[in-house]
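**Sequence, C-alpha cells**
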Amino acid sequence: ARAPLAMSARGGVLVPPRAAHTAARRARPIVAPAVGTRIARAVPARAAEAPAGSTDDAVEDVRECEPSDRGRALVPAPRASRRAMLAAPPALSLGLGLGAMAFSAPASARSASAALSSASASPATLPPPPPFASVGVETLRDPALYNGLATADRAKRGLDGLLPVATTTPELEVARASAAVDACESPMTKYRQLVSLLNTDERTFYALLESRTADLLPILYTPTVGDACLQYGTLTQRPPGITVSLRDLGNVPNLLARWPKSDVRVAVITDGERILGLGDLGANGMGISAGKSMVYAACGLRPEWLLPIQLDTGTNNETLLNDPLYVGDRARRERGEAYDALLEELVSSLQARYGRNVLIHFEDFAPRNAFRVLQKFRSASPSTLVINDDIQGTAAVTVAGAVSACRAVGKKLTEQRVLFFGAGQANIGAANLLTLAMTEADKTLSLEDARKKVWLVDSKGLVYDGRPADKGSLSPDKAPFAANLTELQSAFSRFNKKNGLDPTSLTDVVAATRCSLLVGAAAIPGAFDESVVRQMSKQNDRPIIFALSNPTSKAECTAKQAYEWSNGSAVFASGTKFPDQTVRDGKTGATRQRRPGFANNAFIFPGVALGSLASGASKVTDKMFLAAALALASLVTEEDLEKGAVYPPTSTIREAAFFVGAGVAAAAAEEFVARPGACAGGAIPKAGGKAVPSLDAAPGENDKSAACVNWEACVRDYAKTCL
C-alpha cells in the first residue's frame, strides 16, 4: 500500500511521512549556498531512505548534472520521477536561492510530522487564486501608455510584478534606447531596433528621434528605408498604418473607422509602384509611407496626426509575386477604372472622417499616375489639400540648392544653364519650379525664355522637337522643354570640329548646352562619369553637380568622384548623405574639407504641411512650394557655403520645418488660399475654454479677419496648441 502524503515542516513540501521523518532525523545542519553555487553543497552527506531506484537515483542524477542543467533536472516530469522528488531530502528540496539558512529540523518538526502521519491527511486547502487581471498586459501592449521603467501609475495600470522593481525617468529610458541602437552593427539592424521601439514605447521613440534627428534620419528615411522596403516581408512588426486593396472597393470608410486616431491631419499614401530608385515594390511600399510619417513627427507634427496608407493594387514585380513572404495581393497591377475608383473612394473617405482640410500626401507613384493623379485632385471642386512629394518636394529642395549654389559661385539664378538628366516626375517638377523661380527673380523674363535655359535628357537621349524616337507624340510634361536640335548642333560644332553632336551622349549634350548646373534624378548609377564631370569643369570655373538619385547605390556619382574629377572645384549635392571629404584644389594644391550638400526632401515637406495646416489653406499652390524653397535657401549660412554645402546641416531640420512653414503660410495668404483668421485666438476645449491671444491680429486687436503679423509664431503655435 502507498504511504499517504503528509505535510512536512519544510515550507509546505508534500513528502511521504516516513521519508520526511527519516530525512529530518538524518539531515545535518548546513548553510544554503548563494545563488549560482554548486548544488551538491546543499545536499546532506547521506540521503534519506527511500525505495531503491527512486530518491537516491534522483539525487545522484542531480549531482551528476552540470550546474546549468540542474534546474531542469529538478523539474518534475514523469510520474515516477515526481514521486522520487517528493521523497527527496528537504535540504535538497529547499536548498536553492534561500540565502544563509539552517536546514536541520527541530524536534517540533518531527512531532508535527508524526502527528500528521498518524491520520489520513489530505493536501492543505489553499485559498482560491484571484481572477486574471488583464489591465497590466494591456498596458504593456499599448505603445501610447507603456514607457518602460518610467511608466507612470504602475499600480493603477496593473504593472506591479510585470516590471522590474526599479523605476526610472523618461530621460533615462531615452538613454537606454539610444544605447540599444548604438549596439546594433548595421543600419538595417538599427532600423529594426527603432521600429521595435516604436511598436512598444512611442514616447521614448519620438523623444529619441527628436534628440538624435541627424543621426537617425538616414536610418528611418533614405537610404536605409529603401532596404527596409526590399526586406519588408521579413520585418515581423506591427502594421504601421492602413492597407486598402481592390478587394475593399466600396468598404473603405469601414477600414478607416478601424484606425484608432480620430484627429488625423496628414495621410501619406503610396501605391508602391516606384519606391525611390528601386522600382515596383507593391505592398512593401508601406515602409516608405511609415518612414515619411516618422520624418513628419521628427519635424514637429504630432504622431497622432499622421496616417500611413498603402494602396495595394497589385504588383508587376515577378520576384515579389513568387515570394512566399510577400505581404501584398498576388495579382498584376490594376491600371484601369478600378484603380481610380479605389483612390477616389479613399480620398473622399479620409475627408469624410477627418475633414476637408486633411492633407493628402502622395508618395512614390509611377510617372504614369503621379502627374495625372496630382492634377486631378488639385483641380477638383472643391479642391483637395494635396501634394506629391516626388514632384513638388523634390522640386523645391532642388531649387533651394540651386539658389544657394548661385551664392556660392557668385552668379544669378537667371544666368544658369540647367541640364536635367532624367525626365521623370522629380526632374520635370524641378524644371517647372526652377523656371517659375527665374521669372519671379527677374520680372522681365518670360516663362518661355526661362524654359530656353533648361534642357532634359531621358532614356532616349536629349529631348528635342521632332525626335524620331517619340514618333510625333512627345509627352506633354516634356514638350515645354524640348530643345531646338539645329541650334545645339551649331553650338556644338563650334567647340568640336571633328564630330557632330550625338544626342544620346551625355558628355556631348553637356558640351552642346554649355550647362552650368547638372541635375541627375534618373537612378542610373555612374551616369556622371569622369568625362561628364571633366566637361562640366572645362566649361565652368565652379560646376554645380547634383546627383539626387537614391538610395546610394543609385547615385549618378559619389561626392569623392565629383570633387576629384573637377579638381576640387565642384559645388556638389546628393540625394543621400555622403561624409565630409578632404579635397585638393587643382590650382593651388591646397587641401580643405568639403561638406557635400544633402538634398533631403525632409527639409521641405514637413514645413509645407505645417504651413498649409496652420494657415488653413484650401490648396497647396506652386508659389507655396517656391516659398518653401526660398525659405530653405535663406537658412544656408556663409559658413555653410565656405564648406561647400548648399543646404543647412540635417541637425537643424526640425527648426527648418518651422521656418519653411512660415514661408509657406505667408505665401498661402498672398495667394488668397489661406483661411482668414486661421491662427486667431479662441476657446480651446482642452484648456478649459480659455481664450488665447491671437497671433493673426495686430497688436491690441483680436480681429479674426486681420492678417497674420508673425507666421513663424503662428506655425509654432499650431504645432504646440492647436486641436
About this structure: The mean pLDDT is 83. The radius of gyration is 35 Å.
